[in-house]
Structure formats: structure tokens, C-alpha cells
Specification:
The structure is a single chain. The chain has about 280 residues and is an alpha/beta fold. The protein has a domain of about 130 residues. Helices cover about 40% and strands about 20% of the residues. It is built from 8 helices and 11 strands. About 0% of the residues have low confidence.
């Protein structure tokens, strides 16, 4: 397994590196900033774009990352609540599905292997898993045409977000291009802290055949509330996580997320230590 980071490629002129979801990469200075990621011992990136790139933009992004030695492992295509795949209004949902399709087409152009998204949000009684399934079936046709995976991120606030829900969706959609983003903190309950090793093993092994990419962050429970800090800042047992991933024969990227410019190196070192200490 190799380490990757989230990378927001932005046309904005000014940045603050201490904000969460570091790093943000200036489109104009992309070459130097990609080289900086390489100097920080990252080998890949999950790219997020805050603008709609044209073909020339896509060629530039792909070339600069490749020349800088950073593989674009995935493209963020999060649908959030304003692009809900479970939108009951048919016209609105079609627009949301088209957004996901556009991300798939961009992913192919920049050389990303997968587009990461959510499995719908519970906004009203009409939001159902069937609507998510229908949306994914349509989007997977586009994924197959472009040879790009759709990867649903584990997240228990989604309609299709738990391991069992995602397995059911994969079965019903029936496409080999529907995968999962392994991210156990997003589905962890406080009670799971008492059975951490078993919880991580069960979560990873259940989805072992469908993991497109794995995220690396942490989980922290306080006064009954769950927060999701950077790796090493919470209560997750990373040795157990690495053990579960290796048992599942996962050997792609671990994407460091939920960090700032001030915390990214500590999170990287924490995950790297877990990788090298487990045999």
C-alpha cells in the first residue's frame, strides 16, 4: 500500500494552508505544488476540482500530476444533498445523475481510475434506496463506457452507506464498475470501540472484493458524539485497520484526509508507521 492525499485543484488565487482538507492546489501553480506533494512522500492523490475543466484543463492536470510523479487515483464526485441520487423529483434526479456522469467523463480525461460519491441522503420520506439504485444503474452505463469505477464511500448517514446496504446495491445494480471506498470511521459506533479489531475485520472483509480505494482518517467519540479527525488524533486502532486491509489483499492507496497543512505530516507519519510496523 502507498500513501496518497486529498488534493483540491482550485482556480482561486489565495489559500490558507491551515484549513482542513489540505492541500489546495492552485491551478496556475500546479506543477510546483504537485512536486511538493512528491517531496512530502506521497505517491497518489484523490483530486477534487472546484471548477468544471475543459479538455485543455484536463490535459494539463493529467500531465502535471504525471510529470510530478503523483498518480491520480480517484476524482471526487460527491453528490451531497444538492445533488442527491435519491431525489424523488425525476427531473431533478436526472440532473444529479448527469452531474455524476460528467465527473466520470472528467475522470477518464485526467486519468483517474474511480469517481467517489455518496449513496443518497435521507432528506424526505420519498428518498428511498430504490431511487439510489436506479440512479446508479444509469450512471454505471457511463462508467462502463469510460472504464471508470463509481465508488460509494461508506457513510451511515446515507441511504446506501453501510456495508450491507452497499453490498445489496452492488448486487441489484449488477455492474462490475460499482465499487466501494473503504472508510470504517464513517460507519463506526461508540460500542465498536470495545471490539475494534473484530469491527475492522468484519467491515473490511465483507467488502473485500469491491474496494476501489481506502481512506485514512480517524474516529473520536466524546459525550456520545462522533467526530472524524485526522489519522492519529482519535481512537481507531490503525494496526488492526492495516491488518484487515492486508488480509483482504488490498494493495492500492491509503488516502490521508481530514488534515490541515499543520497536521498532514503527522497523519502521514502515523499511517506510515502502522504500515511498516505490521508484517
Amino acid at each position: 500500500m502507498k500513501l496518497a492525499t486529498m488534493a483540491n485543484v482550485s482556480r482561486e488565487l489565495e489559500f490558507r494552508e491551515d484549513i482542513e482538507f489540505y492541500p489546495r492546489i492552485s491551478y496556475r501553480g500546479i506543477s510546483d505544488e504537485v512536486k511538493k506533494l512528491k517531496s512530502m512522500r506521497f505517491h497518489g492523490a484523490q483530486v477534487d476540482l472546484d471548477f468544471v475543466p475543459g479538455d485543455e484543463d484536463c490535459r494539463k492536470i493529467r500531465a502535471e500530476f504525471s510529470e510530478g510523479g503523483i498518480e491520480i487515483a480517484a476524482l471526487s464526485g460527491y453528490n451531497w444533498s444538492d445533488r442527491n441520487l435519491a431525489e424523488p423529483d425525476e427531473q431533478k434526479r436526472e440532473k444529479n445523475v448527469n452531474f455524476l456522469k460528467s465527473k466520470i467523463e472528467i475522470a477518464k480525461k485526467i486519468g483517474a481510475k474511480a469517481v467517489i460519491t455518496w449513496g443518497g441522503f435521507k432528506e424526505c420520506p420519498e428518498n428511498t434506496s430504490q431511487l439510489v439504485i436506479e440512479s446508479l444503474k444509469e450512471a454505471c452505463v457511463c462508467a462502463e463506457e469510460n472504464d471508470v469505477y463509481i465508488a460509494l464511500e461508506l457513510y451511515d448517514e446515507c441511504i446506501v452507506g453501510t456495508p450491507d446496504q452497499i453490498l445489496e446495491a452492488i448486487d441489484k445494480v449488477g455492474s462490475k464498475f460499482l465499487k466501494v471506498v473503504m472508510d470504517p470511521p464513517n460507519v463506526m459506533k461508540e460500542i465498536d470501540l470495545k471490539r475494534m479489531d473484530a469491527f475492522l475485520d468484519e467491515t473490511v472483509s465483507k467488502l473485500a472484493d469491491y474496494i476501489a480505494i481506502a481512506h485514512a482518517k480517524d474516529v473520536l467519540f466524546k459525550n456520545g458524539e462522533r467526530s472524524l479527525p485526522g489519522a492519529g488524533e482519535g481512537q481507531m486502532d490503525y494496526s488492526s485497520y492495516i491488518k484487515a486491509l492486508r488480509k483482504a489483499k488490498y494493495d492500492y492507496f491509503l488516502v490521508i484526509e481530514h488534515v490541515s497543512g499543520n497536521t498532514v505530516e503527522a497523519a502521514r507519519d502515523y499511517v506510515q508507521k502502522a504500515l511498516t510496523s505490521y508484517f
